[in-house]
Write a structure and sequence with these properties.
Elements: H1 9-22, H2 25-32, H3 36-50, E1 55-57, E2 62-64, H4 66-90, E3 98-104, H5 106-113, H6 117-123, E4 127-133, E5 147-150, E6 159-173, H7 175-180, E7 197-199, E8 209-212, E9 218-221, E10 228-230, H8 233-241, E11 247-250, H9 251-259, E12 264-266, E13 273-282, H10 289-302, E14 313-314
Parallel strand pairs: 3-4, 3-5, 7-10, 13-14
Antiparallel strand pairs: 1-2, 5-13, 6-11, 6-12, 6-13, 8-9
Helix pairs in contact: 1-2, 1-3, 1-4, 2-3
Length: 318
Amino acid sequence: MPRHFDDLMLGTLELFCHAAELQSFSQAAGVLNISPAAVSKTIHRLEQKLGCALFVRTTRHVRLTEAGEHYLSYCKTALSAMYDAENALQDLKTIPAGKIRVCLPNDYAYLKVFPLIPKFRRRYPQIEIDFSLRFRIPRQENPGCDIVLTSWLNYLPDWVATKIDYSVFWVVASPDYLKKAPPLDTIDDLRNHNCLQMHLSDNVHPLRWPFVLDNNEVVHIETQGDMAFFEDVMATYYMALNGNGPAIMHDFIARKAVDNGQLVRLLKPWTRVSHIHYIACAADAMKSPRIRAFTRFLAEELKPADGFPQDAVIIPVR
């Protein structure tokens, strides 16, 4: 069978995909650890080879032409097939090896998962991991990952999920803020405070705060505030830490700061709302030794020492 591409073509396709997804030659260069000039030169050679323009260039960004859009679709399919073929061969080995792609929220990654990775790598040195940090898993059949850690399980109805952890929502503020602010003893008091807001990227309204009433009914309260953050709960943590107002977040984010007095936990009687955290993968992915190794490792390491709470009110993520 005649070959229509040289030995460097695979790297060129990967470079093209990075540039297309980032809409920037300089950002693609940063990801690939090469110079922007090298990216531009490689794309130019590819366009000459194909006989058509793949990008429309502006001073700050690039965007795909119609031909570029078509080419990107085929490139992604080809690279995914190469990835699957390589990992299929790795799965024939008795020792788990190969690459896994893991999607998870940034806060859970930084504070819960990343501290465990050195131990995992010592146990499975031949497994490579690509992490993709996302606030939410995309609403699609294939989120572009082998493994997902999420509370948004309703987005992946056909995946096999294992319950591994839980977290409780805490409302917190700094002592300095509370000294100067009105009382914050009940849910109704929130209306008198400059609450730190968080938005989802597809929603113009900030997320409402969940609380549990005496009859275990969950209510979602709208709060007011002049600072908002898009899909980055860690930003609200740091802003609360620096005295900018009360914020709501998972307990594992705020616990250390509460323990050392940098933050104060508020509204305790009403903050018993929990999320269950799952590790999930496609049903046939569990046949892969490396997928099984990572899934079982995290399930073992993250399971709550005292089990799941009996008095918490579990709600699905909305």
